[in-house]
Specification:
With about 240 residues, this protein is an all-alpha fold. It has a domain of about 110 residues: Hypothetical protein, domain 2 (Endonuclease III, domain 1, Orthogonal Bundle). Helix content is about 60%, strand content about 0%. α7 crosses α8. The longest helix is centred in the middle third of the chain and has 19 residues.
Amino acid sequence: MPKSPSLLDLHLRLSKFFGPLGWWPAETPFEVCVGAILTQNTSWKNVERAVANLKRECVLTPHCIDVMPIEHLAELIRPSGYFNEKAKKLKSFTAFLMNEFGGRIEAMHALDTGALRHRLLELPGLGPETVDSILLYALERPVFVIDAYTKRVFGRHGFFEEKITYAKAQEFFHAQLPADARLFNEYHAEIVHLAKDFCLKSKPLCGHCPIPCAFGRATIAETKTAKTDKPARRSDTAA
């Protein structure tokens, strides 16, 4: 029986297939933080539209968002969906950043990862995925981000159940990978691309996946069986 690939093996395969992905697409660490909050329950294209609105008005700074009327902020980020709630979350985060760190993302490096993560999780509306995205992509802390794509891909590969908790899934990656922010950055980006391009929620493109798995083999077999079992069409000239 062939040995199951390790997490590093899978990363190397994905890295070779996708190449450098350069995620997160942002010009500043603060923009990463804003994007991490806005991307909740929406597509990245919608986030880009909302961020573009903030840039167009030259207000993509902690101070500007902190002093801006919340109604105006909500209107600017409308394309991201749930804009009233997200405006509150952005206000809460920027107030925290202004009050605790003088509005400077780099000042957050004074806290160790565990302490900073705890403080961020105390902010309204910021869950583990959002906070860990900020820690990894804005602050380059070695914290592996878990999302629905990660659970789907690695659940189908048999590493854990798709219904695994966030904390348990994160523990799994932390235990088997070196604590390297650059590795975590690229790996998570590769997982997102894999899930969007091949390991789809329904009708996955398993036959083209760069890391075929038992789930994929079963899916392909089912497809072939369905085609084989399809009743033959009667000929119009049959007696």
